[in-house]
């Protein structure tokens, strides 16, 4: 056992670093020896005779599939622009099934009611983070190759009441032809919703409210397991202050068919027979990745408990089983 990261760097004669450099360093060490973390301590479990081969970056497994599927979708659309929400992109690419979004805010499915609310919220937090990481890795890869450009847009939804003229209802028993016979009812206003992109000033106002909510929740960043609660509270405050129904993000994707033409033709041919297979493989790889992540999180949580380190929450005994069941129910496509 080594008491902390700095001491381990001294033993290995490596430079002490932080941020992404430290993450890369810790990942590289895993090629030479197996270790566990217990608070600041490092528990060396096994030293390999030969270094393990360098791992391929995990997101590269998914990027090619997403690129092929997205280009096939863009090839079907007229023009060179589309605007989609993140959930629409997840669904279109086969990363989730229909039950994922349907149960995200309202746990209506009877299959979910058997699970502890913490387990479900924890799964949605993990899944949203992982799905977003994979999606934007692929979009950024396409952007670097000048196949697409994309931009995040903040959308504001405003409720508008459209007045309706008063309605005169004639008495059916009246013999008079006078239109004044009968009662006058006030028509109910029609509700319409205006969708529009936020201005720069409005984006700043939204950021101010988000900071306000973070402080109220005692957090310095959007909480991993309470993403839905965070945005619900933000939207509630925006409604109170500005009268907006709610806000959400969409992504404007610009693509050039002129320069994508060769790739699109390849995609059309490949996807003609393999579209569903590509979606199924992508979906399965995502579920496998989430399962492995759950194993790592459980191991980390258990090691903290075993070594008497402070842990805010001890994962339940059925954590891994429930997380895998939720992945099957909310993500697996048929």
Walk across the major sheet and give the strand order. 3-8-4-7
What is the rounded Rg? 27 Å
Query: Given the helix and strand composition, which structural class is it?
Result: alpha+beta
Q: How far apart are the first and last residues' alpha carbons, in Å?
A: 47 Å
β-strand amount: 15-25%
The helix content, as a percent range, equals 40-55%
Compute the number of helices.
Answer: 10
* Average predicted confidence as pLDDT: 83
Order of helices and strands: HHEEHEHHHEEEEHHEHH
Low-confidence stretches: 174-180, 306-310
Number of strands: 8
Largest sheet geometry: 4 strands, antiparallel
How would you describe the shape?
Answer: globular
What's the SSE blueprint?
Elements: H1 5-12, H2 19-29, E1 33-38, E2 41-47, H3 60-76, E3 81-85, H4 86-92, H5 98-102, H6 117-144, E4 148-162, E5 167-169, E6 183-185, E7 190-197, H7 200-217, H8 227-242, E8 246-255, H9 257-306, H10 319-330
Antiparallel strand pairs: 1-2, 3-8, 4-7, 4-8, 5-6
Helix pairs in contact: 3-6, 3-9, 6-10, 7-8, 9-10
